[in-house]
Amino acid sequence: MEGKKWITKDLLSSKYMPMAKLYGIRMTQAIIYLMLLLGIYMCVLKAGNCEFAFLKLYMGELATIVFLGGMGIFFYALTDQVVVGYMIPLLYYMLNIAISPNKIKVFYLFSMSMGKYEWKWTLGIAGVVLLVAGIAIRSKRK
């Protein structure tokens, strides 16, 4: 299994395009697809007569998605282990369920349930920073 891992890395690193640009394109595509899927899901909710502030919730959920995804990519880049990249955001999500919002304040994932929509700005910005840092670390690693 270890040999296949190196073959894939060798194949990717042999491309003419820089790895950072390749990762950036893939990340942009993933975010666009997530935006579309979230939008479709929320439109279905609206069509089912659900009442909510569409734009506020859409942007808040998008910030949460980017934050958890950025956290996963960042820890994957640090450890070079895909499982760690999945487990850290999952553990953080579980921590948010179990801990008081007062302990983690602006990094609380469920802040919109408390009416704290402005906290989502911090999550969104932190998510973008983690994405960029993860791509930068990953593209430097050979």
Q: What is this entry, summarized?
A:
Helices cover 77% and strands 0% of the residues.
Describe this structure in words.
Keywords: Membrane, Transmembrane, Transmembrane helix. The chain crosses the membrane at residues 23-45, 57-77, 83-99, 119-137. By secondary structure, the chain is mainly alpha-helical. It has one domain (15-140). It contains six helices and no strands. It has helices at residues 2-13, 19-47, 54-79, 82-98, 101-104, 119-140. The longest helix is centred in the N-terminal third of the chain and has 29 residues, at 19-47. It is globular, with a radius of gyration of 17 Å. The two termini are 18 Å apart. The relative contact order is 0.13. The model has no long low-confidence stretch (mean pLDDT 90).
